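User:
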Amino acid sequence: MLLKTFDGHNDLLLNLWLHHRDDPVRAFFAGIEKGHLDFPRMQQGGFAGGLFAMFVPPPRYVQEVAPQRAAEKLAPLEILRQQLDILKALAAQSAGRARLCLTAADIAACRADNVLALVAHIEGADGFDADGEALEAFYQAGVRSIGPFWNLPNRFGEGVTGKFPNSPDSGPGLTAAGEALIAAANRHHMLIDVSHMNEKAFWDTARLSSAPLVATHSNAHALCPQPRNLTDDQLRAIRDSGGVVGVNFGNAFLRADGKRDTDTSLIEIGKHIAHLIAIMGRDHVAIGSDFDGISVPEALKDVTGLPPLYALLRSLDYDQSALEQLAWGNWQRVLQQIWQE
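Assistant: Predicted structure:
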């Protein structure tokens, strides 16, 4: 029986916005030649829902991967709105195959009905104002999850940066505006993603936030000393808050040498899962693939590699209950708790 997966983070919307903006719905449901995600492959892999990131790519990235878009001069908030429109179109034009979810109950209903669950997530609050109007507007438009940072500084603080190997202690913590953003997200009962926070910003958030701490797509710094990965002390703080870490499938976040080499065994994913569970317990570890945003092991290839990954974990003595928690249950629990249903 195919295990259903709820994924904490992917960049499908960025892929569609950069490369298939003229007809993203057709591309998604017919199949996309490049990348890790589309509807046919999701069905094959048991991918049944997730947090779909809206992300403003830096100009150098656009120039590299989509030079035909490089001359565009769009404001960050307009880019986020366009990506949210794509997500809503996927649901509205899906013929019942996908739904935008605003509550944990919506996600559970999608699972029961075998419908793709779509949750809108903002990765990086660049372009947001300090008074909360943009956050309010996106909340009203259906966004239920936000990561204040990517890798670059903004008015709310600095994302985690630095070359491998290095510490996540890469800059100052939250600004006054950043503290206000955390408070506003708490008032709206939105998920606050700590995945791209530097260590000081992480501890500021842990001190200020009333919600469980969540890293949607991060791994163990003890196994791979990327600045973006989490120290054991951070993992314990997430555990103690009742939160969750979604395991990232990116080679550079898995390998002890930090390389983006696709010749990476699936066992490296297993090692990070095992370490996180050893520190946090199995109630706090989930999937946060980062599909369409990173280089993944060739052995995984794309979303169709989820069943072989679960087969590997079964061979490592993970029982069905543990796999169901990892694949879906832990996300269902923490979202229900954060969204206060």
